[in-house]
Amino acid sequence: MKSRHRRNAPRNPIPGSAYRLTATWPGRDRPALFESSDRRQVRRVARELAAAGAVVICEESLGYGRWRVVDRLDGPALLREQRAVEHAARRAAVEQRARQRRDERRAVELAIVEAVMVQPPIPRDGGSPRARTVSRRRGIR
Q1: What are phi and psi of 49, to 5 degrees?
Q2: Which of 76, 78, 60 is nearest to 68 (CA)?
Q3: What HEC string does 2-40 produce?
Q4: At what angle do helices 39-51 and 75-118 cross, to 10 degrees?
Q5: How far from 38 is each of 20, 47, 119, 127, CA to CA, in Å?
Q6: How far apart are CA 92 and CA 85, in angstroms?
Q7: Residue 54, helix vs strand vs coil
Q8: What is the average pLDDT score of the chain?
Q9: Residue 67, SS3?
Q10: Is 44 in contact with 58 (CB distance < 8 Å)?
Q11: Partner residues linked to 72 by β-bridges
């Protein structure tokens, strides 16, 4: 019969969670705490809390109650940056629409001028002269 003890088992396992994060909001006293051994889940929760405007500090366990800061997300700065990018995109879209309208107006004006320039001259008598020859220096009418 086999022994229940695994020979390659870790001698000093890390107790508790491998990762934790602390989220603080400006103007609030109590921080939000989250612990998990799943790094992906911790990163996802950290992004969600930062998107909600919190300053998030992600830490990794070194064992025996010691923690190492892995990442720091500044939620208010991220929100300001996102708003600035959105504002710049909106401003660029407005300028693009104004430029398109101006170009369309200019194209219409140029089309009108071109139409005037292309039209043949209209004869005074409507295209049917009364006399075939010049008589008494009056010219063709």
Answers
A1: -65, -40
A2: 60
A3: CCCCCCCCCCCCCCCCCEEEEEECCCCCCCEEEEECCHH
A4: 60
A5: 10, 15, 78, 92
A6: 10
A7: coil
A8: 84
A9: strand
A10: no
A11: 57
pLDDT by residue (tens digit) across 89-111?
Answer: 999 999 999 999 999 999 999 99
The answer to whether 43 and 58 have CB atoms below 8 angstroms apart is yes
d(CA 30, CA 21): 13
> Which residues have a Cβ under 8 Å from the Cβ of 55 and sit 6 or more positions away?
23, 24, 25, 26, 72, 73, 74, 75, 76
Q: Rounded distance, CA 6 to CA 13, Å?
A: 14
Distance CA 21, CA 37 (A): 11
